[in-house]
Amino acid sequence: MKAIEGNLHQLDDKKGSKVVEMLKIGEILRNRYTIEKRISHSNYNQIYRAYDNVKSRPVVVKIATPKLDPRRMKIEQMVLTLLRGKNHFVPLIGMGQIHNVPYLVMDLVGRNLADIREQYPPKRLQPITVYRISIQVISALHDMHTAGFLHRNIKPSNICTGRGAQKRIIYLLDHGMARMFTEIDGRIRKPRNRAGFRGTLRYVSLTVHSRAETGPRDDLIAWFYSMVFA
């Protein structure tokens, strides 16, 4: 952390705690992406809205914090590269490193399901809306599982709508916890005796709670709990 403190500054978040800003407003990455504002943050990464000065369009920059294992960002990059062109995965535009931490540049998407839900007075989505979202999430998981990866962090805030002409398309986000569950030849990997907890407490399956090996069905269980929440 000390190695990068000189390049960063702190702001208060909504809860009054200090947030170390990984990027500065107005900073330009790779002589192309101008940072406009921070959209969200966690202990492990920060999301910024930026402007692509080459293609004249808004984009998102996701940058790791020093607490994140760099391998997590590489896994997300791998997943997005493998699933490039699939309907429910945000196009990966670029990648790089700044302040000794990695970042990804992706298309800007719309609001996530958790935020949308909060805007409705009963704080519930209509059944037909949940149905339409579910069809697309299941399609996204099918593509991801076919590619040999588990998502392992399905939750409403990782399910987003598109923007503009893509506003009715649902996107699956945040693949940093993904794990390959198949070998290169397609065989299922040998299960571990004990697996670490991965996911969000409210949505994970009993298998995850018991620290047993997970599979595609556990992503589907998390999807089901997410839709119950909606």
Automatic annotation (TrEMBL):
Pfam families per the UniProt record, alphabetical: Pkinase
Single GO MF descriptor: ATP binding
Protein kinase domain boundaries: 33-230
SMART domains assigned to the protein according to its UniProt record, in alphabetical order: S_TKc
UniProt KW keywords: Kinase, Transferase
PANTHER family, sorted: CASEIN KINASE-RELATED
Name under which the protein is recorded: CK1 protein kinase
Lineage of origin: Eukaryota, Metazoa, Ecdysozoa, Nematoda, Chromadorea
